[in-house]
Amino acid sequence: MCHVIVTCRSMLWTLLSIVVAFAELIAFMSADWLIGKAKPSNSEDVDNRIGGSQEPYRPTLGIYGRCTRISHMQLSRRDMLCGPYAENFSEIASGFWQATAIFLAMGIMILCAVAFVSVFTMCVQSIMKKSIFNVCGLLQGIAGLFLILGLILYPAGWGCQKAISYCGHYASAYKLGDCSLGWGFYTAIGGTILTFICAVFSAQAEIATSSDKVQEEIEEGKNLICLL
């Protein structure tokens, strides 16, 4: 018989697992890992004719995507064009970034699988006498290691030609040059930290759903058990 068990700790772990998976996925897809040096607008001559000022902009570069400004014929319309600069995996700018993409993708796939399974832990707490919480916590720890490897390798690719074109000639491995780090990189770091927090917190979720009070509720014949 299925017993739906909901506790504060198990629900918090489930929500954090989902948030972490989405945060890492969004960070991976973002083009805001590096914010390039300021570049002048391409419509300087138009601005001069109307007496306006030239507004510099800063293009951004991700693992496989980028955002840059395009100027239209209309005087007041300038947009940022975002999209992948690499049509396939081999066109990613650096071998280090290719390795980063692999490690991050592996970690994100594990996190997404755990997030999916975590929703069902309210009804099923163990499989083959193995606690789902403990197994998911172990998988989250492994995913966190993959994410750390990816984040360590990523700065080693700052010396590639693509990064130099955005960050200037002083850019090299682990040196930003004229660039700064964007929200995509910081989101990936924050998601990695939360991944390990989730891995540790899974043990608390296991303790909460297998406590003596829960067992008493089950023995009383209750199918829906909600505990603080």
Automatic annotation (TrEMBL):
Signal peptide: none annotated. It is found in: Membrane. Keywords: Fertilization, Membrane, Transmembrane, Transmembrane helix. Its main location: membrane. One of its GO terms (biological process) is single fertilization. The chain crosses the membrane at residues 12-35, 96-120, 132-154, 183-203. InterPro entries: LHFPL (IPR019372). PANTHER family: LHFPL TETRASPAN SUBFAMILY MEMBER 2 PROTEIN, LIPOMA HMGIC FUSION PARTNER-LIKE PROTEIN. Belongs to the LHFP family. This is LHPL2 protein. The gene is Lhfpl2.
